[in-house]
Amino acid sequence: MLVVPWFARGQNVSVYEIRPSPEGRFTLEVYKTGLWKGRKHLFLFRDYRGTIHFDPASPEKSSVRLTVAGASTVC
After folding, report:
1. Sign of the C-alpha dihedral computed for residues 51, 8, 53 and 23 taken in this order
2. Would you say residue 6 has pLDDT above 90?
3. Dihedral sign, CA of 37, 43, 48, 49?
4. In a designed cystine with 17, which of 4, 26, 37, 49 is the match (CB 3.0 to 4.6 A)?
């Protein structure tokens, strides 16, 4: 995963772009419960994009938006 900084004009908010990179990967581990307890699924997401808006003066107003292309998911 690659996080690239850029700055919003006229604001004190740092904006970062999230996108795939050859060196990184974005995965999700899902641990099962109940009858399937102890098993795990590992999902690899190959196509995703997003942004992080971080306001150091008011961290509670910061946000993350991430979009994953479902067809790019591998289990």
Report:
1. positive
2. no
3. positive
4. 4
pLDDT given for residue 64 in this prediction: 93
Q: Which residues contact 4 (CB under 8 A, 6 or more apart)?
A: 16, 17, 19
49's tokens: 């994009």
pLDDT one-digit tens code per residue, 30-46: 999 888 888 999 999 99
Q: How far is the C-alpha of 74 from the C-alpha of 55, rounded, in Å?
A: 34
Tokens representing residue 69 in the block? 């292309």
What's the mean pLDDT in 44-50?
91
